[in-house]
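Lab notebook, design round three. We kept the backbone fixed and only want residue identities now. Task for the bench partner: fill in a sequence for the structure below.
Input structure tokens:
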């Protein structure tokens, strides 16, 4: 995920490099090309699901990690970051895999389901990842459902947490987490924009 994000940022910077800095532009383009080749050669793998998709980490020596983490950049967030199209078959297969129990950091419980992290206890879902599911979705009902899930799992604090136990929203890490609050607000604004577009039609 991080390499695809880096490639996307570098490609966006290329047109902004002044004409008198062509050596910098050439170095940036070389790096973009190297990342693209590395992804094609090493990152696209046969997932545990049997589909072709993106590995979370590769070392170029044949070792891979098949998972996703709630932090952004993540595999889930790639379309949001402009790194891949949301309807790309490689992304769709990756998304199906990481939003399943085959991902060791995907948790599904009585209160919520979603991706957690190595940085919080097992079975804790991150509201950031729940919001990101909504942000990469095309469906308004999915966006609405993710907003409702996050709002229902604040344990009465009115704040998003870092991680929330999948079965018990009163168990959480960080009383408030500004990154999660911001991602929730981003999803809410995205949902409102979709509603406004629909009304305008």
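Proposed sequence:
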């Amino acid at each position: 995920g991080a390499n695809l994000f880096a490639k996307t940022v570098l490609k966006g910077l290329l047109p902004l490099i002044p004409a008198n800095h062509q050596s910098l532009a050439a170095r940036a383009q070389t790096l973009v090309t190297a990342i693209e080749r590395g992804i094609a050669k090493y990152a696209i793998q046969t997932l545990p699901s049997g589909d072709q998709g993106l590995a979370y980490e590769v070392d170029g020596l044949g070792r891979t990690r098949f998972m996703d983490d709630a932090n952004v950049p993540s595999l889930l967030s790639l379309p949001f970051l402009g790194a891949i199209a949301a309807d790309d078959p490689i992304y769709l297969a990756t998304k199906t895999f990481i939003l399943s129990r085959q991902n060791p950091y995907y948790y599904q419980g009585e209160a919520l389901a979603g991706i957690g992290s190595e940085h919080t206890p097992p079975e804790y879902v991150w509201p950031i990842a729940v919001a990101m599911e909504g942000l990469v979705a095309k469906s308004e009902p999915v966006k609405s459902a993710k907003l409702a899930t996050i709002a229902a799992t604040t344990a009465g604090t009115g704040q998003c947490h870092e991680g929330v136990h999948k079965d018990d929203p009163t168990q959480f890490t960080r009383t408030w987490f500004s990154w999660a609050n911001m991602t929730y607000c981003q999803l809410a604004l995205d949902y409102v924009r979709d509603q406004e577009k629909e009304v305008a039609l």
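Keep this in mind before ordering anything: The CA atoms of residues 8 and 83 lie 6 Å apart.
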